């Protein structure tokens, strides 16, 4: 893939919130996990874990915990990507808290792009009640849910959200 193909790959990924019936296979899950394990992480500690949810009752509970975002139920498969505080803090102490959140965020991004490479559609859900998600998924105290990633197959809307001018993000040498 050359650099313009890479840009096109990135530009053709959009969040999809309407899905067909569940169609994620075990091979898809294995592919997404393998791709995500290539992500960089602080000290290569991979301080992220994922709960793969396909049970309808669990999906309904997660949708409730996310202000009834229907795409969580409709996707048929949701990955809850979590920061593993103990794994990062065992080496980095308090700084490990941030590293674990960063590792989980990068892992979510890799998963989203790996799904796109596999022609699956995703929607990243960040608006959820953390305590509710922890309780639904029975997460231990040192595991913090960072993102719910809905994964399915749906219809890509022709509308693509506008972005800021990329130059407006950049500051040179000093803010
Ligand atoms: C940290 C984060 C939290 C998000 N939370 C939600 C959410 O709760 N519900 C939702 O429908 N989309 C959510 N999104 C998706 C964004 O709305 C979407 O990425 C953005 O509008 C740009 O659109 P695009 O993904 O199609 O490029 C979230 C994305 C990120 C990165």
Report on the structure:
- The chain has 175 residues and is of the alpha+beta class.
- The protein has one domain (32-155): NADH Oxidase, CATH 3.40.109.
- The chain is 42% helix and 16% strand.
- The chain is built from 7 helices and 4 strands.
- It has helices at 3-11, 26-36, 56-64, 71-75, 85-92, 95-117, 130-137; strands at 48-53, 78-84, 121-125, 143-152.
- The radius of gyration is 17 Å and the shape is globular.
- It binds flavin mononucleotide.
- Residues 14-15, 17, 69, 123-127, 161 line the site of flavin mononucleotide.
What's this model, at a glance?
The chain has 175 residues and is α+β, with helices and mostly antiparallel strands. The chain is built from seven helices and four strands; from the N terminus they run ααβααβααβαβ.
């Amino acid at each position: 893939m050359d650099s313009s193909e890479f840009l096109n790959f990135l530009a053709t990924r959009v969040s999809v919130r309407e899905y067909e019936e569940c169609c994620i296979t075990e091979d898809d899950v294995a592919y997404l996990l393998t791709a995500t394990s290539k992500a960089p992480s602080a000290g290569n500690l991979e301080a992220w874990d994922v709960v793969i949810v396909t049970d309808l009752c669990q999906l309904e509970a997660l949708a409730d915990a996310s202000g009834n975002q229907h795409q969580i139920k409709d996707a048929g498969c949701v990955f809850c990507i979590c920061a593993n505080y103990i794994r990062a803090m065992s080496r980095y102490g308090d700084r490990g808290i941030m590293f674990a959140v960063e590792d989980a965020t990068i892992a979510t991004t890799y998963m989203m792009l790996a799904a796109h490479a596999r022609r699956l559609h995703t929607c990243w859900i960040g608006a959820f009640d953390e305590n509710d998600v922890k309780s639904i998924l029975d997460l231990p105290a040192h595991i913090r849910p960072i993102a719910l990633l809905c994964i399915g197959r749906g219809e890509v809307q022709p509308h693509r959200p506008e972005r800021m001018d990329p130059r407006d993000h950049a500051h040179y040498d000093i803010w």
